[in-house]
Amino acid sequence: MGQQTIGDVNDDANVELAEEVLLSVDQSFQRSDTSESVEVPDRVRSDVAVTDDATYNLTLNSNSTCSTGNRSLQTLQYQENGQEVGYQGGGVWRMTESGATMSSPPAVNYDKGALSVSFANISGQQIGGSSVAIRSNTTANRSHEAALQTALFTEATYEGVRNGSWDSSSPSTTCAPSQVTNATLTIENSSYARAWADWAQSAYDDKYVKVTPSSVEPGETIDIRFALGNVSDPEFEVQNMSVQEDPSDDQKALVNATIRNTGGLQDTQEIRLNRSGASDNATATVTLTGGDSARVSKSIDADSGVYNFTVASEQDKAYKLVNYTAVPGSPSLNITSASIPATARLNQVPESNVTVENNGSMTAEQNVTLLVNGSVNATQHVTVHPGNTRTVDFDSAMPTSENGTYDIEVATDDDTYSQYSDDGHYFVVGDVGVFEVTSVSPPGGVKSGDTVTIEATVKNTGNIRKSDAVKIHIKNESDTTVESKEKTLTLNGTNSGSEKETVTLTSGPLTAPSYSNYTYIVETPDDRSYGTFTVGASAPPVFDITGLGVDNPVEPENKTEVSFNVTNTGGTAGSQTLRIGRDWGADKSTDEQLDPGESTTVTQTVTAPSEDGLYRVNFTTGNQTAWRILNVRSNTAVERDGGGMTTTERVNATIELKGAELEGSNGYQITHTKVDMDLVVNNQSGDHEIPLWRDVGYDFEDGDVNGPHAERRLINDDYPDPYEFTKTFEANSNFSVTATSYHCYETTYTDIRFKIDGTNYYTKRCSSPGSVRISTDESSTNADILADGEVIPGYGQAGKAQRKLTDMLGEQRLTELDNGSARLNLADGEFVYLYELSQDNANPENAYGYGDPDYNDAVVIFRTNSIENEVAEPRFSFVDVDVPARTPKTDDTEATVTVKNVGTAAGSAKLTPTFDGSTAETQDTEIGVNETAQFNVELATASKTPGQSYQYRFNLTNPNRSESATGKQWGGNIYVGDIDEQFMQVDSVRATSTIDNDESANATVDITNVGGEGGTAEIKLYAKNTDDAGSTFTVSDSATTSLLTNGDTEQVTLSLPSDRGNHTYYVQTRNSTSAKQSFFVGRSSVVVNDTQGINIGAQTYNTATLIERNGGAERITVEVNNEGTVGDEREVALTVKNKSDGTTVYTGTENVTAGSGDLTGSDAYPAWAGYDTDLDPGYYTYEVTVYNDTASGSVDDTATGEIYLKEVDESGATTNDSPISIDSDTITIGS
């Protein structure tokens, strides 16, 4: 108990004395959360009193529903001779002749968009006794603080929460924490209102904190508005601009646009709407908070001609070119043709489009709308100048997600197309056969007089059997059919296993004077594929698209591969630019040279858009354009699959036993039967059964999770709880946690007692288990897997001696419903296994009443901790090359090359030998991870002239890597025959193929004297930068050997160049020169992936947004990307701090390898750093730092963000660690 005594002072200084006392009160509550007291001297105690005239109100987003309501702002106040000093709102204020001033600031903390308010509750009366005690009790206010928090974020009022009239079973969040943009603190009836205003204005920038009014008198109301969340500068973007005719004035144009504030702070701006050459340009004033938008619309004079209309804010501008052929002008957008199929299979994306033409006298700015059964299904905005046409695709908007018959219409402002009225049929989805052309093999290099063969493969991708015609046509340049074939196919659909069949058309001789273009067309009732080929010796090249590859579906912001095949169907070789284009990212283009009939494949790895949807990918050559739809669909890393789970990604997960209660009571004893559990996993490596917890406890338990000893470990904190099992599951694994109960032939008393309702119960364990009673591996319905929000079976059906589900799962994970059942409140990424192990073939749907299965015989929580990404690729390195330094003339030389796979996946290593300038046959072999392989290479030395040294080189490459990636090389020389004098041969040269420009590298060189006379060798390494056209070979390093006699070998190291670029180098003595080898010096650039780069549980998040989750965060994984040209290692650090007080709760570093070798031409290479953070619910900030090599090096990149982990039973924000916090101490005054 702290004690402070203030002595008597002069009467003239009483007010200063009282101020000191109140400052002491403030300081005591700042430094301690325990009770303290401050003794008030006799001289001033009779003038100390508590007033409650003032009130405060905290309101979020100017929404009165999200408000604390008016709360009393009690004041501990001293008054004497017209002067006064008070403790109010955590601050000390003084009233002087010139007005109210601040002596100590209030308990309001604001920093970078986060606000914390902590006002004390003060109770008591004017003091008449001999002493006054002022006490703080921080633990007595939890219900008060919880009510304040609940009132702020939900529809509840403070009073409703405190008196119990608010129904907390179905809370409705009104102001979600992530959506809070401002908070207004209102102070009413305060004598110190002026000082409150002065404090707020002087302490904070008015960009973020605004005080209304700026000057007040005592007792007047003051509003202090704090900007929360994103407090970046306002940024007014101009979006969705359009120009239309003004229906109220045919001589004017109506200019419209949406103005959106993509910044954080509110602002007011003047928006300018202009037309080039106009004299009546217009303005509109718009006020927007961060994230809000408004529509502006103004009329501007129109005139004949082409004009540039603009809409501009202070930061952005948009424009439209509009063509008036006559004034008054109006557009007329008519639908001139439609290509919409009659049928489609479920979830197909059928090619569906309409063509519109503007027959009016003004540029049309209109919506083209697709209606399904009379309701709008999709809208596309088009700009069409007078006399022009535009094709509008509705492929992804067609209603194929459910089986059915649909009425399809397309409408503009001026015209309507009806599929039923115009084409005589409806659109049918589902129980149909769909004949899709999956591949076509066109001819190439056709000469005049040749016949051609076209093969087309057709597959029924619908769900039912279908018979229909497939047609193949060949047409000449006059569009005349010269050959055709029709064949009726009968193919099963997906219900019976999709069938496919190939249709072949062989033509007669096709002639051409010099050359001629022919078109092939493959048609089914549901699909169409076409292309061109040329006939004639001088026919130009024609690059025809013959296949498309898009892997569907893909998760948002995940990487996927798209590709297309191209064949030169022309008569001569040629080069064209092949391009993959998309709306949401950069195109990829490559120039390819193809001979007639030759094919190539262009591939691009792309990152999918961030939102679910269907996105078009375009593939183009110089002769043709084709497209496919990329289906972007959110997915969970772990999904329920019947009685088990399926992983769609590689995940780290924990299986936690919460309880097992297969037991009964008789009198004062509880008898436990045996239950054990297993993890059964099926993946590409086979079937695996992992016994769980068999090594826990005593030998006689043998994995029994239901015995008395196991129950004691689960409920008694004095005994360690070992019942957690964490494992990394590979992608596409199927697994289940199975439970088995046993009959019991004999039981034995234990020394364990359990107290239930005040009575001690003896316990008996099963000492002689018999045959299997129930196994969920055989009866999957005896295990029920439930997710968050689902209703549990058998709730409340536990027997007297059994722990209830609330005991095992905890009250926070269950919400009892009015019908007697309960709903699960689980953290993100959690599932619950509930087991019924006493009734065979139980059904969860029948588990509610007395005597029904209770599904509490065992309870397990499955929790996804993280997604464990890795780049699985092979990496090969030389272990040894065995080549003799000298060989006789008569024999070829056997070389043995040993290679090891040091990567993370098996792969094919390719070895290409070169001897005396001639390249030998390439060898390749499959090598597993950490395995080695030998290549035996025969070097043709028997055919070489003796008395000379001959160069060899081995080039080791990985065919799975980019073609631009430099392979590893090992080179040297072999001397053929004998020599009497000294001959210093460069026996072998090897070095790393790539380095980062901040590193250094050496070549390892073996020098052998293959001659008969001893001596020394001067060795020089010559190198040049081949990226520099003017570069020549210069000496990079040199060395001299010691004395070498016949057959002696010495190894030296020589420095390689360190300047960036591609280098060629060789090593030379006076007698011998090595083969030239390649060496690349690049630069690594490793940065944090700001897009979906933070992983917690089964979800990934952007770094720039607040991460909100239910439950804690056992593990956080950070993705970094190497955007450079060489792979390298980095140290990645993660620091997590408590948002409220800035204390560090976790710090850790991980080393990652972001690629290896040459990454030139590759997309950013990812790597992942995982951290076992074990964060409880709360509000945190985090910082990721990427260091160059180690933490002592320079910083390559940083990323920061915030994480809000909510309690699993939370409705809105009900903890003191939410983005905005409000709490209180309690001050009590008494004699």
From TrEMBL:
<feature type="compositionally biased region" description="Low complexity">
    <location>
        <begin position="1214"/>
        <end position="1231"/>
    </location>
</feature>
<feature type="domain" description="CARDB">
    <location>
        <begin position="331"/>
        <end position="416"/>
    </location>
</feature>
<dbReference type="InterPro" id="IPR011635">
    <property type="entry name" value="CARDB"/>
</dbReference>
<protein>
    <recommendedName>
        <fullName>CARDB domain-containing protein</fullName>
    </recommendedName>
</protein>
<feature type="region of interest" description="Disordered">
    <location>
        <begin position="1212"/>
        <end position="1231"/>
    </location>
</feature>
<dbReference type="InterPro" id="IPR055713">
    <property type="entry name" value="DUF7289"/>
</dbReference>
<dbReference type="Pfam" id="PF07705">
    <property type="entry name" value="CARDB"/>
</dbReference>
<dbReference type="Pfam" id="PF23960">
    <property type="entry name" value="DUF7289"/>
</dbReference>
<dbReference type="InterPro" id="IPR013783">
    <property type="entry name" value="Ig-like_fold"/>
</dbReference>
